[in-house]
Design brief:
Blueprint: E1 12-17, E2 27-32, H1 33-37, E3 41-47, H2 53-65, H3 67-72, E4 77-82, H4 86-96, E5 103-106, H5 111-115, E6 119-122, E7 128-131, E8 134-139, E9 142-148, H6 159-167
Parallel strand pairs: 3-4, 4-5
Antiparallel strand pairs: 1-2, 1-5, 3-8, 6-7, 8-9
Length: 168
């Protein structure tokens, strides 16, 4: 498992973009981690799946609600990562009204979750291999803090916990 001080893996994730601009075309666009993280402070949280109960009712909404506080504390971007495709993440973002607050990042083949050692095997529940529920603070591509949830828990990867770590 990734440790504080480690660099995030050089994987390419995907993001659905609805408005053309800033070098992005409409539709899925690659997010190459080394370039996307360079010189930025990122509050990244991962969850098992878009449109799932805890993820939709608590996890993502907490970060949307606290987006301005994260920015005021020096966070450049908030990323929501899930092992879903970019189209699903885009639709979930529209549903949750995240525009301008949280980037919805797709880890479609679990490359990131595998590389950081934070996968969750939900094969017996019909969901396949997913990302575990966690949050992390990343500065210039390096891990500053990591909060990993226990099985079925939602206690340490919430927006309030990560925001406290950003402010520390």
């Amino acid at each position: 498992m990734i440790k504080v001080g480690d660099s995030l893996p050089a994987v390419t994730l995907m993001e659905y973009v609805e408005v053309e601009g800033n070098g992005c075309s409409i539709g899925p666009n690659p997010v190459k981690l080394p370039e996307a993280l360079a010189g930025k402070t990122i509050a990244l949280f991962a969850l098992p799946g878009a449109f799932t109960p805890t993820c939709s009712a608590q996890h993502l909404p907490g970060y949307v609600a606290k987006a301005e506080e994260f920015k005021a504390a020096g966070v450049d971007e908030i990323w929501c990562l899930s092992v879903n495709d970019a189209f699903v993440m885009g639709a979930w973002g529209r549903d949750q009204k995240v525009a301008g607050k949280v980037r919805m990042i797709a880890d479609g083949d679990a490359a990131f979750a595998k590389a950081v050692g934070l996968t969750l095997d939900l094969n017996g529940k019909g969901l396949g291999l997913r990302a575990n529920r966690f949050s992390m603070l990343v500065k210039d591509g390096k891990l500053v803090s990591l909060n990993v949830e226990g099985p079925g828990k939602f206690e340490v990867s919430d927006a309030d916990t990560l925001l406290q770590q950003v402010k520390a």
